[in-house]
Amino acid sequence: MSHDSTAAPEAAVRKLSGRRRKEIVAVLLFSGGPIFESSIPLSVFGIDRQDAGVPRYRLLVCGGEEGPLRTTGGLELTAPHGLEAISRAGTVVVPAWRSITAPPPEEALDALRRAHEEGARIVGLCTGAFVLAAAGLLDGRPATTHWMYAPTLAKRYPSVHVDPRELFVDDGDVLTSAGTAAGIDLCLHIVRTDHGNEAAGALARRLVVPPRRSGGQERYLDRSLPEEIGADPLAEVVAWALEHLHEQFDVETLAARAYMSRRTFDRRFRSLTGSAPLQWLITQRVLQAQRLLETSDYSVDEVAGRCGFRSPVALRGHFRRQLGSSPAAYRAAYRARRPQGDKPGEPEPVAMQPPSGQPVPASGLQGPGPMGSVPSMLHPERDSGVPIQSRRTAAAGAVSLLPGPRAGS
Question: For the HTH araC/xylS-type domain, which residue ranges apply (predicted)?
Fold first, then answer.
């Protein structure tokens, strides 16, 4: 899923300065960046596939700092161009940034700001969103990144409307994607925007990937507490909520347990997590329902009761909004994918071990981003119908995930 570029027409009509060319794509690489994310725009925009009906781009690979650039596995890369080459590009892609805690080089940020001022389209894949945010290009805009890093992005840059549910967000002249494979989704979307569905479909066939993926990052979200709030008194209240999801309680209950007024609790919760407490609570209940549908034979009515929903109707509504499917259809699809012989209640194979020590099931894993795991609790309710333009004018403190219209994949 994505936010469509048509939602931001004022950005889409910007004109390039005279020296920039629409068909030129500059990819900005940094030392310490992951090889997978870095290779995605190189493969999409740097290989001539005109024989398959894919219009050709001109690729400029630019070093964002002095080389050689070291990447995954100790490989060393030498970029053929420096930051000066960005001045010719109509699109500038930042595949990933090496550390969500380290500031990017100021020279690279200046180059991105100039490119944007001159009408270039700026793209951040995965943690590349942190570079765009550091340059001020995401202020007041909707954006996404890998779900593990969304709380940190929202907390560090409170004027950015972070939405970890999306595979990518197209805000016209600034685009961001979730982690790893979602970068392919966004690059396909760019080709589709530039040259139409047929060209994007031809490229998808060459890459052997779906031209459009349904759904977002919701299926991969983790229920763990973010490391940043582990020592905060509010963490105890959040932990209690996760242990008592089977009970019917509301945000007022949580505020009372924290000995705070509702208003103070909402403000503290947002500042620590980047999410509104009601949004977070609803999504935790949906995640719990998802697990029960995968691992038990409880009826949908029983699942609703065991997840704290007041009725099966409430479960179905929130489940469909967050996962795009009914609970019954989700269970049927999950069991159809499960290897024969598995029984409900049997644990899934462990695909990775986060730093917290809690195993993540293979069925609920997108894969880690370039840096270490940072579990997320930034899980909002979906589809309030608030348009992107309205979200841009929201109060600066409203860093919860502000849902809006969806299109694409």
Answer: 235-333
